[in-house]
Write a structure and sequence with these properties.
Blueprint lengths: L2 E2 L2 E2 L4 H16 L9 H53 L8 E4 L3 E6 L7 E8 L2 E6 L2 E7 L9 E2 L5 E2 L13
Antiparallel strand pairs: 1-2, 3-4, 4-5, 5-6, 6-7, 8-9
Length: 174
């Protein structure tokens, strides 16, 4: 037993050595905790905000490009369907006497399948809509956002005709 401050201590030397070892080990522990400091959190948030600010215009541009592409595809498909419908209908013209009006902006003919005397069918552009008009029913829009519509006519030799000729018995269209 040792004397501590003139008195005898009840602490053995082994206990004293163990206590010193614990105190030394306690002092050697890192003073920093495992969490984040406020400054580190603020810096991280600032950097992420800057990156988000830079990425937002790119994302907006990508979304606009996708919407433009989808609109373009839809318009193209609508135009394809309209041209296919017009082609199918015009191929039903049986002879050159069925054509009533043929100019650069309009084509009108008599559909022989429309019953006695046939049904008059006309294709033209009204505003920005490609229209198909029949005498038997209301006009139908075949395509929207049509900027121009021009009919070109040809004769038997495949030569373009500027102004088709019409008579009660025949035209020079083929």
């Amino acid at each position: 037993k040792k004397l501590v401050g003139g008195r005898r201590s009840a602490v053995s030397s082994r206990q004293l050595a163990f206590s010193c070892l614990l105190l030394t080990a306690h002092r050697r522990r890192p003073t920093r905790s495992l969490g984040f400091t406020l400054i580190e959190m603020l810096m991280t948030i600032t950097i992420l905000a800057l990156l988000a600010g830079l990425a937002a215009p790119l994302l907006a541009f990508s979304i606009d490009a996708i919407q433009f592409h989808i609109t373009r595809i839809n318009m193209s498909q609508s135009a394809d369907v309209a041209v296919e419908r017009m082609t199918r209908e015009i191929r039903r013209v049986r002879d050159d006497t069925s054509i009533v009006t043929a100019n650069a902006n309009q084509l009108t003919y008599i559909n022989p399948d429309g019953g006695v005397g046939g049904t008059q069918i006309s294709f033209s552009r009204v505003g920005t809509t490609l229209m198909m008009t029949t005498a038997a029913g209301p006009a139908r829009g075949l395509a929207d956002n049509v900027q121009s519509l021009t009919f070109t006519y040809f004769d038997d030799d495949g030569t373009e005709i500027g102004a088709p000729l019409f008579s009660p018995n025949a035209t020079n269209l083929r």
